[in-house]
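<instruction>
Derive structure tokens from the sequence
<entry> Chain with its tokenised backbone below:
===
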Amino acid sequence: MKPNLLSWEETLFRDPDVFDLNYVPEQFDYRDEQTQSLVFAIRPALRGSKILDTVCRGPPGTGKTTSVKKVFDSLREATQQVIPIHVNCRIDASEYAVFTRIYTALTKRSPPPSGTSVKQIIDMIARYLEQEKVQPVVCLDDANYLIYENQFNKTLYPLLRMHEIFPSINFGLIIIISDPEIDLQNSLEIRVQSTFHPEVIQYPPYSAREIAGILNERVKQGLYPKVLGPELLDIIIAHVMKHGDVRLGLDLIKRSVLYAEKAARTAVIEEDIAKAVEASRDLHLEMLISSLADDERLVLRIAAELFSEETSPTTKEIMEALPDGAPKLTRVSEIFKRLDRLRLIDLEYSNQGGGRRRYVHIHEDRDMLLAILSRSE
């Protein structure tokens, strides 16, 4: 009898890269309007003029980064006089880090030596641009991290004003914001507001039909036929719709197929998807925690350390346990509200025992939460 087993060198993936979160697909559907708006904003650069500064807004996993990368690829093919630069502000979350990234992307050189001031790096960038006679277009991706760290205005101001000192230089700016709760206008200082008047492109969550179309296309590209049947893909789509993040679907497909490979099967079964869904809870939580500012992670960690099945700490107890240099009362109150909205904690009000108290319950598994927090520090 012929065994129906995968040998060690066989795989169910036609192209596993298709399911990586940073993969830029050749076929990019359901964002034609947004992509064309980006093209319209950038097109003046092809005529030697400044682009229209642009803000791309929408929840995570709605195609913002992919559409910018697609337009940047087209820009590289169209001209060598305009240099697109993508800065991931999750990684480069300070003024110094952003300008260092811009410098290395432009010059293809090593970062400036430690001790080099931001002003010196900006001067080095300006001299390079004047010498090479090229125009930069900078995308600050996940710029909400700069806002969390109070670095946004410090970073924007010199980019917007550089032409006043170096008239031949005009930075084009594309800002991606993935936190729908950020009021961008109120985040801007007056000195930045006076020169920053961006076009705003909205990226709404994908519909169930659109998510199905995206995941179906990735399955065709990335898997061999009959590895993942349509009825099983429907299960994955239903799970993704609970969170509205198409990246979760890509992770679930990849994990499900890996579980099938591990069991030496030639097709995914429902049990593989169930395992992938359980494992994806960690991914979703990691993505959520990675979106927090440093002071928000600090408050969450203290809350988790004080929480147990028998005892829920009060907000006052958590604030008293914060280390020296921790955020002030007003900021901590804002943090509690945000963590509650993100369903990382549950706030419960009580008038028992005299006085009104707020108790903090940890919404996720405490040990898993602390493990992810420790990895993010």
Observations:
- The mean pLDDT is 90.
- The longest strand covers residues 82-88.
- The chain has three domains: 32-202, 207-290, 294-376.
- The first helix runs from residue 32 to 42.
